């Protein structure tokens, strides 16, 4: 198949960027989207041109590094799918495909499609962990956690931190990411000891990173490759208000 690509090229965060046209032919529909970009970069290198910079790591939909906007949609047209798990069969032969980096004030462009998502790391560092000594792993049947709570915690912990929620939100909010990282610990016994300080510290850090406010459009859940529910945001708001009341 043949694709006409319009890819955002930008030297660094201070430089002006622009869309550059590329055309690739004889592509296998079963290639992944990132394999297609690899093919383009091989072509550019052979022509002594600068290859397109983009983030990737595991290429198995686990690490969350491969995020980009494809035709204006975070990770592309398939629901609950990361960019690395997207294949060319999802596009039409001869289609024009726009490829851009995630757009957010908190995610400055490093180069081309690569963005700086270290703001997420600072949110985690502010409280997204259990610092108390929990000892060795106890017998599972002795932990007082119901199946429903376990499933809710696991669903929140499935967040891979890709940033699609931020990129697709009209306000650039990180509420879905932050709430998922808060809730998967607050639901389990090991995370309850630091329940009050964790939510306050992480929400405050999120605000300091210049992420926008959540206005409940729920676009983040739609574009999340893991399908993280916006109910996590409601629980985070509850935990935040509860923490302030109890600390008084």
From TrEMBL:
Which residue numbers delimit the 4Fe-4S ferredoxin-type domain?
A: 150-179
Superkingdom of origin organism? Bacteria
Pfam families in alphabetical order: Fer2_3, Fer4_8
Q: Which cofactor does it need?
A: [3Fe-4S] cluster; [2Fe-2S] cluster
Coiled coil spans? none
Question: Which SUPFAM superfamilies would you find in this protein's record?
Answer: 2Fe-2S ferredoxin-like, alpha-helical ferredoxin
Give the matching NCBIfam families: PRK07570.1 (NF005746)
Q: Which family does it belong to?
A: Belongs to the succinate dehydrogenase/fumarate reductase iron-sulfur protein family.
Protein name in UniProt? Succinate dehydrogenase/fumarate reductase iron-sulfur subunit
UniProt source species? Sphingobacterium kitahiroshimense
Q: What is the lineage of its organism?
A: Bacteria, Pseudomonadati, Bacteroidota, Sphingobacteriia, Sphingobacteriales
